[in-house]
Amino acid sequence: MQTTAAASAVLAMPGIVGRARAAALKVAAIYTVPVEQQWVSRIHKAANAAVARGDIEYVFSENTSNNDYERVMREYSEAGHDLIIGEVFAVEEAARQVAKDYSGQAFLMGSSFKPMDDTPNFAVFDNYIQDASYLSGIIAGAMTKTGNIGMVGGFPIPEVNRLMHAFMAGASEINPDIKFQVAFIGSWFDPPKAKETAFAQIDAGADLLYAERFGVSDAAKEKGILSVGNVIDTQADYPETVVASALWHFEPTLDTAIAKVRDGSFKADDYGAYSFMKEGGCSLAPLGTFEGKIPEAAMKLVAEREAAIKAGSFVVEINDEEPKST
Asked: What is the β-pairing status of strands 282-284 and 242-248?
């Protein structure tokens, strides 16, 4: 368990629990993977930003097994943390039971399910970054020479599927003849397996890879082909091969939850929309070393679509079905 702390002073407790609280909310996070992993790293980054502002005190547990998740949730609840965050995709039922047992705490959890009336203190979020994924797909479609793109994901769950579909839609808009190889490795953190799966796709003709998992960009680098990142920007590690990335910004989600806990209005909401581009929840990463190397027509389309997405006049489809190779 790691700990980061900030601030003091005393305020009145908002309505959810009704007792005195420090100015800096006590926030705890429970992660099933290392904080370096893409998805979790963005939550961790947002929490540390809130610490730096003096808004929260923050502790977290990483590499928590599914079997141990409920115990850790209960320990943080017993310790009196005001807001508990994490991802409960494999422990949904147990996590919601903890929320029922600790009605004085607020829970904000990554989940494939919706908020429920029987757990009014349990809100859900997800990384709905299909907008940025779509834009990265446009760039990929313009940069592939063979028209064969490999895609390696963790599990075919909605959180992954919707991003892959958006990427495929963007690539297909600028290049309708593209073929996609889609594979899942059955793990959230197994870089060697992701790398080997990517190698197989390269052997089958892919000259550009969609790196939903760590390890894929390593395969692209070794073979001298391009890759597109997901959730985080890894171009600094792969300056010659990562051509674009769709970034997730968790700050709008967390900052909204902090404000609602503070003013007593926190409830069983769906925070998914705070990941949309128009809310500042996602963006296309800076092109960096690929600035000026992407076809002008593609960059023009990216600019047009980005402006339309932010204005609400263009909506990227959310498709949670498992994507298939074409």
From this structure: antiparallel
How far does Cα 158 stand from its chain's mean position? 12
Looking at the DSSP assignment, which residues form a beta bridge with residue 230?
Answer: 246
- 31 in Cβ contact with 62 (< 8 Å): yes
What lies within 8 Å, CB to CB, of 18 at 6+ separation is: none
Q: How many residues does the chain have?
A: 326
- Domain spanning 2-125: which superfamily? Response regulator (3.40.50.2300)
Using a 10 angstrom Cβ sphere, with 0-12 exposed, 13-18 middle and 19 or more buried, the burial of residue 97 is middle
**CATH fold for domain 130-249+280-311:** Rossmann fold (3.40.50)
Chain segment 48-91, per-residue pLDDT in tens: 999 999 999 999 999 999 999 999 999 999 999 999 999 998 89
* 2-125 and 130-249+280-311 agree in CATH topology: yes
Domain coordinates in residue numbering, the chain? 2-125, 130-249+280-311
Q: Write a three-state SS string for 291-311.
A: CCCCCHHHHHHHHHHHHHHHH
Q: Nearest 10 degrees: CA dihedral of 99, 11, 54, 119? A: 10
Under 8 Å CB-to-CB from 157, ≥6 apart: which residues?
A: 89, 112
Q: Is-contact 106 268, C-beta < 8 A?
A: no
